């Protein structure tokens, strides 16, 4: 009988914090600057330069720790992690080993199971603050590498989970939970593709029921949920194959190649994994008082669970809509602000759930990138409510609004898109349609009720969508 | 000297520090390291029960900067001492991932 195996997974998630400046110097963290234009003696490791901690980094780290049920290490400090690599100009990375800022937390995740949702607690071992490294560009032609230190010193938090996950679904649910929580806090935009959220996955397998963990490997270079899922499946299979053929799993760091769907053992800088950590003498200890923690706690925004509960109680929209709208803080804000401007919640929800999601999907955009304003969405809904435009026209206007955030009232006026309420014009068009479509007319008169749908469509087309379909239907019936 | 540093240790420390030492230098380094460890042993004789571990010599804590951009573009200065530069970047020997 084939043996059954259990996968044991723990995650190390790096999140780039949304500060304006780097963790230890006043250089900008803005994306897209020309190489090395956001650098100074501190973040390029010049001798004699002195790092000074950015207060906002501590604020964000505490906020994330509180939101993930961690205890805050009130006396914490920084340590040096020593290694040589050109992306690290000091030859050490400033990080936290001995006293990480947050410890012993957890988040609750939900994964689909049979005909319901399974809830599970994933432990958070610790969260520490550290600095990002520079970027290496390989120049194969010259046989050299080029270094840009614009990202060097950008603040990160590393969230280390307990090995509590057992399959890819749980890993994705955990990452989504972290992402929404951190986005709600405004501590990071958490974009996997752009690298502001990065996950290293520790995987081992063991026989079902075994008490000891197997030897684990660490998988790097996972920059999409898709890559993470495939890497987990691939690594599970690779380790089971090794065990079944009597070989041993080697504890090592592996790099996932998503194109090829396989991983490779990494060499070079991992050869000697002896980082000789010691306290950084350039940075003084950080003391986070009870008052400071209380202040961060008091300033925490409403998080997703609380928001979902409030939506259920006050907006009367389906649970499915609530889940999708609150998945992104930006979309939830848009929803609430549009409703606050007087639009009916269900109608706002419909615009977000149908048209907005469709366009986002078509253009491979993120909900965070929605550019139209609540004011304009409310105005569009009002135009439909007042029957000033038809829903067909509204959808066209919405497309333009989505792309350019135009004012729908002005746009409808300018393009002459208002519904025609001129009875005589409508009557003329309907008469023309009847004259042009004798077959459908005959069908309808012979009892084929459905034929009228075609005639309504023809009329709407002739009116360029600017007629009220109910009115057209009524008039057609009258004239037939 | 109570402590003795063996060849293997000095070899390993050399690799970690990316240092290539001659045989004489290795001998000297072994002696220096042994002396340092002897000194640590001497410190360890002190009874530190009930003493909070110290991570910094100054009784100072919470030195912060506010999150405001104070540095402009100083690329020229940053690259001034680079042995080699190209397209505004430092040139280093090819590294592999
Ligand atoms: Zn800097």
Radius of gyration of chain A: 29 Å
Mean pLDDT of chain A: 92
- The oligomeric state of the chains shown is heterodimer
What number is the mean pLDDT of chain B? 91
Distance between the termini of chain A: 75 Å
**Which cofactor or ligand species appear?**
zinc ion
Helix and strand layout, with pairings?
The complex is a heterodimer of chains A (480) and B (97).
Chain A: E1 5-16, E2 53-54, H1 55-67, E3 71-72, E4 75-76, E5 79-82, E6 92-95, E7 102-113, E8 116-131, E9 135-139, E10 144-148, E11 155-161, H2 168-185, E12 197-207, E13 217-220, H3 225-244, E14 253-257, E15 262-265, E16 278-279, E17 286-287, H4 290-298, H5 304-314, H6 319-327, H7 329-340, H8 345-362, H9 374-385, H10 391-404, H11 408-415, H12 423-436, H13 438-445, H14 451-462, H15 469-479
Parallel strand pairs in A: 13-14
Antiparallel strand pairs in A: 1-11, 1-12, 3-7, 4-17, 5-6, 5-16, 7-8, 8-11, 9-10, 12-13, 14-15
Chain B: H1 7-16, H2 23-44, E1 64-65, H3 75-79, E2 85-86, E3 89-93
Antiparallel strand pairs in B: 2-3
The complex binds zinc ion (ZN).
């Amino acid at each position: 009988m084939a043996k059954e195996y259990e996968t044991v997974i723990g995650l190390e998630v790096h999140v780039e914090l949304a500060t304006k400046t780097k963790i230890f110097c006043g250089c900008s963290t803005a994306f897209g600057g020309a190489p090395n234009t956001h650098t100074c003696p501190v973040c390029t490791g010049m001798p004699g330069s002195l790092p000074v901690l950015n207060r906002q980094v501590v604020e964000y780290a505490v906020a994330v720790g509180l939101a993930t049920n961690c205890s805050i290490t009130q006396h914490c400090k920084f340590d040096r992690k020593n290694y040589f690599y050109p992306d690290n100009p000091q030859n050490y990375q400033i990080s936290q080993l001995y006293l990480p800022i947050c410890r012993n937390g957890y988040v609750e995740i939900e994964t689909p199971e049979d005909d319901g949702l399974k809830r599970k607690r994933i432990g958070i071992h610790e969260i520490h603050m550290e600095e990002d490294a520079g970027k290496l560009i390989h120049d194969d032609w010259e046989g050299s590498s080029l270094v840009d230190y614009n990202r060097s010193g950008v603040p990160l938090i590393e969230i280390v989970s307990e090995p509590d996950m057992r399959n890819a679904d749980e890993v994705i649910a955990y990452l989504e939970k972290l992402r929404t929580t951190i986005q709600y806090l405004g501590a990071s935009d958490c974009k996997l593709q752009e690298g502001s959220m990065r996950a290293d996955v520790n995987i081992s397998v063991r026989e079902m029921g075994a008490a000891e963990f197997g030897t684990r490997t660490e998988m790097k270079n996972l920059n999409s949920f898709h890559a993470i899922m495939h890497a987990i499946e691939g690594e599970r299979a690779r380790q089971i194959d090794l065990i079944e053929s009597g070989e041993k799993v080697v504890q090592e760091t592996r790099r996932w190649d998503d194109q090829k769907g396989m991983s490779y053992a990494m060499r070079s800088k991992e050869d000697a994994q002896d980082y000789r950590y010691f306290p950084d003498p350039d940075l003084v200890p950080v003391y986070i008082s009870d008052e400071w923690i209380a202040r961060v706690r008091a300033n925490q925004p409403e998080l997703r669970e609380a928001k979902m509960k409030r939506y259920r109680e006050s907006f009367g929209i389906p649970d499915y809509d609530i889940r999708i709208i609150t998945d992104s803080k930006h979309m939830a804000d848009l929803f609430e602000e549009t409703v606050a401007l007087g639009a009916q919640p269900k109608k706002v929800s419909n615009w977000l759930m149908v048209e907005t999601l469709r366009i986002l999907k078509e253009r491979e955009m993120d909900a965070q990138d929605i550019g139209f304003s609540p004011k304009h969405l409310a105005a569009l809904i009002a135009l439909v409510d007042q029957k000033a435009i038809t829903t067909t026209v509204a959808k066209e206007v919405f497309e333009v609004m989505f792309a350019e955030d135009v004012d729908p009232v002005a746009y409808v006026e300018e393009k002459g898109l208002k519904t025609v309420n001129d009875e005589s014009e409508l009557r003329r068009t309907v008469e023309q349609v009847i004259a042009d479509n004798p077959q459908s007319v005959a069908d309808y008169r012979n009892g084929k009720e459905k034929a009228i749908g075609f005639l309504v469509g023809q009329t709407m087309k002739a009116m360029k969508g600017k007629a009220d379909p109910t009115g057209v239907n009524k008039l057609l019936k009258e004239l037939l | 000297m109570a402590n003795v540093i063996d060849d293997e240790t000095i070899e390993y420390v050399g690799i970690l520090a990316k240092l290539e030492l001659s045989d004489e230098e290795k001998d000297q380094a072994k002696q220096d390291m042994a002396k340092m460890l002897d000194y640590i042993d001497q410190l360890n004789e002190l009874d530190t029960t009930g003493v909070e571990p110290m991570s910094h010599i100054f009784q100072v804590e919470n030195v912060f900067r506010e999150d405001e951009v104070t540095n402009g573009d100083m690329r020229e200065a940053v690259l001034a001492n680079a042995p080699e530069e190209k397209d505004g970047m430092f040139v280093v020997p090819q590294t592999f991932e």
